[in-house]
């Protein structure tokens, strides 16, 4: 077996998919461990990404669960380099595989900082807004993906929930994705979520006279109690997850810089409320 360096992004994603495959069959971890003649603690470490199983073990694991050959081959290939610090995925943004990975990051994080320059962060999205963003995906997949995305925000209400900071570029408030009514509901939901003690929403105004990190695009930083931070960036046909400690610290510094130039929490919520009023008046 190969140990990861504190839960690399691809190792966490692989573990999440192994757990999802097991849970889909209704099998407990202990029952599967008995079938594989191994210890359930070892399986738990595979499913959390703490340890990367050998490709051969992944094949055995999935065969015992009755997973299709195509899915088995995909995850076996995924295991070959899952202990690498950084991971570039060519899965389309918003896909089921990407959402499964993000749920795993969110489930184990202690702090999440989401810098959103174009759209509202996933953890704050309403169903209709998420559905509008997924325009272009196969219709038979959209509703499942919307449920997954909306379900992600429950992580903010659990016991020992992570601290979530959303820093929104003003431009994200002006894009009427889904139409005026959808955007009004979406912004009202952002204000509602900001009332949670572990959620902080800030707005960076447009018209800056000096460069700042948000000019380079959106990114999310996940911090963990016992692992290096993970920086995640999404693009149209790819995403990147980075866990190199030096790079992660630079992004944490960028979050602090943006926090310093953003409006205060109170000013930001008032600004969003004014945006809602303007949208309602224009109906």
Automatic annotation (TrEMBL):
InterPro entries: Cro/C1-type_HTH, DUF5753, Lambda_DNA-bd_dom_sf. SUPFAM superfamilies: lambda repressor-like DNA-binding domains. One of its GO terms (molecular function) is DNA binding. Residues 18-72 form the HTH cro/C1-type domain. This is Transcriptional regulator with XRE-family HTH domain. It comes from Saccharopolyspora gloriosae. The lineage of its organism: Bacteria, Bacillati, Actinomycetota, Actinomycetes, Pseudonocardiales.
């Amino acid at each position: 077996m190969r140990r990861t360096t504190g839960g690399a992004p691809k190792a966490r994603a692989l573990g999440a998919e192994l757990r999802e495959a097991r849970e889909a069959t209704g099998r407990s971890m202990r029952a599967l461990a008995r079938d594989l003649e191994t210890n359930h603690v070892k399986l738990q470490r595979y499913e959390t990404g703490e340890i990367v199983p050998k490709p051969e073990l992944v094949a055995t694991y999935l065969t015992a669960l009755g997973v299709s050959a195509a899915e088995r081959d995909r995850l076996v290939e995924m295991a070959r380099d899952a202990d690498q610090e950084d991971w570039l995925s060519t899965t389309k943004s918003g896909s089921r595989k990407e959402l499964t990975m993000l749920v795993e990051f969110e489930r184990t994080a202690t702090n999440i900082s989401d810098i959103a320059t174009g759209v509202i962060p996933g953890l704050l999205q309403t169903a209709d807004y998420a559905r509008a963003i997924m325009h272009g995906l196969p219709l038979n997949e959209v509703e499942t993906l919307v449920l997954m995305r909306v379900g992600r925000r429950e992580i903010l209400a659990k016991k020992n929930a992570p601290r979530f900071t959303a820093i929104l570029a003003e431009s994200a408030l002006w894009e009427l994705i889904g139409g005026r009514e959808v955007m009004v509901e979406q912004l009202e939901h952002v204000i509602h979520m900001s009332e949670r003690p572990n959620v902080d929403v800030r707005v960076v105004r447009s018209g800056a006279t000096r460069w700042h990190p948000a000019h380079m695009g959106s990114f999310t930083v996940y911090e963990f109690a016992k692992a290096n931070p993970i920086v995640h960036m999404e693009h149209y046909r790819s995403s990147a997850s980075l866990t190199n400690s030096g790079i992660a610290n630079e992004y944490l510094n960028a979050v602090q810089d943006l926090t310093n130039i953003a409006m205060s929490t109170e000013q930001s919520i008032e600004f969003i409320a004014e945006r809602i009023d303007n949208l309602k008046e224009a109906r």
